[in-house]
Amino acid sequence: MDLSKYNRFNTTAPTFFRLCQTNVAQFLALDNKLSSGNHEEHVLHEIKLEQDNVGLIGIVFAAMCVEAEIYDYAATHLGDRYVKDNLDKLDVIAKWKVIPELVAKASISSGGNAFHYLSDLVKARNRLVHAKSRPLNFDKLPSSNDLRENEAKFRNSVRNSYRAICYLAAEMSVIEQGIVKPFWYVRFDDDDCPPYINVIHAEAKRYATECLTLQSTGVPLA
Questions:
Q1: Tens-digit pLDDT string for the chain (222 aa)
Q2: Does residue 104 sit within a domain?
Q3: Measured between alpha carbons, how far is 109 from 113 in angstroms, rounded to an integer?
Q4: For position 147, what pLDDT does the model report?
Q5: How far is Cα of residue 35 from the mean position of the Cα atoms in its chain?
Q6: According to the model, what pLDDT value does residue 2 have?
Q7: How many helices and strands (H and E) does the chain possess?
Q8: What is the CA 205 to chain-centroid distance, rounded?
Q9: Is residue 44 a part of any domain in this protein?
Q10: Is-contact 42 212, C-beta < 8 A?
């Protein structure tokens, strides 16, 4: 069998994945550190600042990973020229719906967790990339509840950025039965993965099993 078409140059998705994984793991470790006990105000400020930094990096590289991976998958099976002429201008969510259908005759489920986390990731990435300042009204400052809600939303976005990759990998492992599957570098049984990441891996493994069960009963994933 000729495997030459699977050889590609300048594939960046695995690197983006590792950078996302490292920074999300650090974010979760700092989250655990914050909840483990009281900290002096200056220490708390430093921890939160570092956590914000690694969280932002995790989201951005997760978005870069899913974008690069769907291009590599499409170009490998459909050809670079076809992708650039017909698919490249689609947004990343549309690509993850259309391209698996073209290649594997199946698509990720619009009601499934992979699609949900991918959509959340795209929104989080857009909030960062297109962030805009607003006038500050000293007569109506954000309440403590508003600040807590924003903080909780950001924490969820960081976690879900890594979930987006893992759940896409899980569902595509069921859809794509070819030699080279998308996210081949995402290993759910990796004993050397950073701490706090294995919980998300366990979730994604269960999701893959659910997808496989649906497929075996003839229920379409999409």
A1: 455 666 788 899 999 999 999 999 999 999 888 887 777 888 888 989 999 999 999 999 999 999 999 999 999 999 999 999 999 999 999 999 999 999 999 989 999 999 999 999 999 999 998 888 878 777 777 777 777 788 889 999 999 999 999 999 999 999 988 777 899 999 998 888 888 899 999 999 999 999 988 877 666 554
A2: yes
A3: 8
A4: 74
A5: 25
A6: 57
A7: 7, 0
A8: 15
A9: yes
A10: no
Residue pair 6/179 in contact (Cβ under 8 Å)? The answer is yes
Let me know if residue 100 belongs to a domain.
yes
Query: What is the C-alpha separation between 151 and 136, in angstroms, rounded?
Result: 19
Q: What is the span of the domain harbouring residue 25?
A: 10-130+141-216
Give the 3-state secondary structure of residue 38.
coil
Residue 136, in any domain of the structure: no
Q: What global pTM score does this model have?
A: 0.90
| Residue reference for tokens 């990720």 | 108
Rg (CA), the chain: 19
Q: What does residue 86 show for φ and ψ, rounded to 5 degrees?
A: -120, -25
The 3-state secondary structure of 133-146, one letter per residue: CCCCCCCCCCCHHH
What domain count does the chain have?
Answer: 1
Contact 165, 24 (CB under 8 A): no
State the alpha helices, DSSP H only, in 79-192. Answer: 80-86, 92-104, 113-129, 144-175
113, 143, 179, 182 from 1: Cα distances, Å:
35, 64, 11, 20
Q: What is the structure's pLDDT at 220? A: 56
Of 159, 142, 172, whose CA–CA distance to 201 is shortest? 159
Q: For residue 29, count other CB atoms closer than 10 A to its CB.
A: 16
